[in-house]
Specification:
about 30% strand; globular; Alpha-Beta Plaits; 4-stranded antiparallel β-sheet
Length: about 180
């Protein structure tokens, strides 16, 4: 079984290059394919998991070989354990405390931001939506005490802002619980 303490993603503007990148990453290193699909605006993303060295090697090799059409990419070593279930659409949140949302123009920067947010503060990752029916954008939401959510949102927004891809960030102190139904 492949050790999954690291994830890597390549987001491309070409579907053909995206499929090629997925193949290259799987052939380059012992990594596990987590997600490989088209996303809105005619983009393609491939997400892999494995140990840090294998993921780095796979992502770097694919970028070097393809070059054309790479919009964004990352490797996150020691990814926070709540990121995997959030990507898969699972959460264990039963009630919203305060709510924080960070929205990005890229999937890659958003996953990096979500990881930074949950590492920065004691919050629960509610949702991570990746560019499906979002015009190529992505967002994550977290819940917890207001101060913790504020800290998490600022940490996540800083990651996305650094790449110039921040759409918006919002903190809602006392959200209506009905919002949780829309986030699962």
């Amino acid at each position: 079984m492949i050790e999954k303490n690291s994830i890597g993603l390549i987001e491309l503007g070409s579907i053909a290059s995206g499929i090629q990148a997925a193949d290259l990453m799987l052939k380059t290193s012992e990594v596990e394919l987590m997600l490989s699909r088209t996303i809105c605006s005619g983009k393609y993303m491939t997400l892999i998991a494995g140990d840090v060295a294998a993921v780095n090697s796979a992502v770097n090799n694919a970028i070097e070989v393809i070059g054309f059409g790479v919009i964004d990419h990352f490797v996150i070593p020691n990814v926070h354990k709540t990121v995997f279930p959030a990507i898969a659409g699972h959460n264990n949140v039963e009630m919203l405390e305060s709510l924080g949302i960070v929205e990005s123009y890229s999937v890659a920067s958003l996953i990096e931001a979500a990881d930074a947010a949950v590492k920065a503060s004691k919050v629960k990752l509610v949702e991570l939506r990746l560019a499906m029916a979002l015009g190529g954008k992505a967002f994550f939401s977290v819940t917890g005490e207001v101060a913790a959510v504020t800290s998490a949102v600022e940490a996540g927004a800083a990651v996305v802002s650094e790449k110039g891809l921040l759409v918006n960030k919002v903190i809602i102190a006392n959200p209506r619980q009905e919002l949780l139904l829309e986030m699962i």
